[in-house]
Amino acid sequence: xxxxxxxxxxxxxxxxxxVLIVLAAGAVAQEQKAVPPESPVPTKDIFDVLxxxxxxxxxxxxxxxxxxxxxxxxxFTPYVGANSSNGFIVGAAGNIAFFRGDPxxxxxxxxxxxxxxxSKGQALLSAKIAAYSRNxxxxxxxxxxxxxxxxxxxxxxxNTAPSDVVDTKxxxxxxxxxxxxxxxxxxxxxxxxxxxxxxxVRPAEDTESVWAESPFxxxxxxxxxxxxxxxxxxxxVSGMFDNRDSPIDPSRGWYSNVKYRFFFKGFLGGESSxxxxxxxxxxxxxxxxxxxxxxxxxxxxxxxxxxxxxxYGLPATxxxxxxxxxxxxxxxxxxxxxxxxxxxxxxxxISRNGLFGLVAFLNTETLxxxxxxxxxxxxxxxxxxxxxxxxxxxxxxxxxxxDIGVGRQGSSGFYVGIxxxx
Length: 422
Description:
Elements: H1 3-12, H2 14-34, H3 46-53, E1 73-83, E2 87-98, E3 109-118, E4 123-132, E5 138-153, E6 166-184, E7 187-203, H4 215-223, E8 230-242, E9 253-263, E10 274-286, E11 293-307, E12 338-349, E13 356-367, E14 381-393, E15 398-407, E16 412-418
Antiparallel strand pairs: 1-2, 2-3, 3-4, 4-5, 5-6, 6-7, 7-8, 8-9, 9-10, 10-11, 11-12, 12-13, 13-14, 14-15, 15-16
């Protein structure tokens, strides 16, 4: 059976599976109210298992201590994978989690870095950081990328067909950095710098004949953009609220972030002046008292409010900070002036020691296209799938995540990452 068909058949059951599992978990939660709690089981991660297989004693690890910063907590893994966007992938990803102050008053900081090489000749390097100072006074949020890559490009809106695809190569250099200052408990205000450059944009070898009529070239010609290199640069303001119990694998709490970015023509080579509003709302709650059954909800919006951005500045599937929107679709599958996205995920820690977990997720997105008059919520692209989790670091609760997802028109994908999707 072809891999794509197997993926579609497996993840296609996610819609029914998610509903049934949530109902079953609710029943489990009700039963647990009447059953005395079981004795706690020591948590394990993959490195504990490896030490046991080698007949070595458990490693003594210094936990973060109240009153001062704790030792950094690392998670690292090589990985291989395959999907239509990248071909065969070989790479490595690492996560570091740490406290810059007393864990009782300072939130956990994280940094994620990855390097991937693909059979399509892509080299993908990224570094994402979310770091708090002592007592959460300051917070820095960073999204930095250096990619020699390619992407299947489509026209704008929701009504493009898979046959419309044109593979496009380019180099991407991104620096998105926002610095926040706490003003109230859990609430911070921030200001940021944003730079995004797509250079050496060109057709892939097998798309040269249709390059002149490709969505990228058509859009660039309509709005007077240089088709070989396009840059956006500017500043922005943000407001963030966060009371989750963990930024890596939360089981309760709320996260919300509102960002408004201003890009300026001529600033550091910017192609045009335009403005963008990004909305990010997430919440988490437990279905069982031991937190082994959880629900996560995510609502995300990326809206161009004024001006005309370059083609790759438009909101698109999978172009959020960690590239997790739209599981079931290729990155960039849908693109438009405005995007709204929603997702629900059921999370189940299978083993009482926390080593293994499963997830089932459903999502949908909708985009607009001014040229055709298509509005938000006229058409939706639903997706769904299943995932497997392995605990890489029990102290920071970092998982390595393997997900398969499907979408409409036969779309499917396989995803590997460190930390949860949201």
